Amino acid sequence: MLDLGKIELSPPPAGELTTRQLLEELAVHGDKRLVFSYEGRDVRPGYHVTEVKDGRFAGLDCGANPEAWHETFIQLWDVSEDGRSHMPAARFSAIMAKVAAVVPFDAAAKLTFEVSDGVAPIALYRADGIAVAGDAIRVSLSRRPASCKPRDRWLEQQKQAAGAAGRAQSCCA
Question: What tens digit of pLDDT does each residue of 37-73 get?
């Protein structure tokens, strides 16, 4: 059995919001409507948070390096219901607090949104940014792409060493 105590947890990728960052920003704007945007459009008024899950993962990447990370999954059911508007940020925060009381999650975890309209399959998104505009707080979501972690680490090392991204090298040896 793999000893997780010997594997350093991978931080969330740069440019992605963590669970903590999202909740801290929502706490400041609890009275505003919470609108998630993906695929060039906003979730519909009446959307539901259908599940919140805490994931703890361990595995090997394509370079045979052990990897471990925590991830918070928030499932959004993108439906419209008559007479409902986008939920207030405070309501979303209350849902997350209720979950945390029963299923503790790592606030520094990578954050993934599972979004579906109940017809199309669930698609995975990351939270790229958050902005306040008028009476709404908007969270922009983009597709969560696959990545090669050894290549990503190598590129980050090159960027730090040279001040700019370098060329990719073969990583799957």
Answer: 999 999 999 999 999 999 999 989 888 889 888 999 9
**DSSP reduced 3-state for 130:** strand
Per the document, the length of the chain is 173
Q: What six digits make up the tokens of 43?
A: 């979730």
Question: Is the residue at 157 inside a domain?
Answer: no
Query: For 93-115, what is the mean pLDDT?
Result: 93
Is the pTM above the cut of 0.85? Answer: no
> Residue 153 falls within a domain, yes or no?
no
When divided into structural domains, the chain yields a total of 1
Q: How far apart are the first and last CA of the chain?
A: 24
d(CA 23, CA 105): 12
Distance (Å, rounded) from C-alpha 45 to C-alpha 29? 18
Rounded CA separation 51/162 (Å) = 43
* Nearest-angstrom CA–CA distance, 55 and 44: 27
d(CA 118, CA 89): 23
Asked if residues 49 and 75 have their Cβ atoms less than 8 Å apart, the reply is yes
Please count the other Cβ atoms lying within 10 Å of the Cβ belonging to residue 103: 11
The CA distance from 147 to 168, in Å, is 13
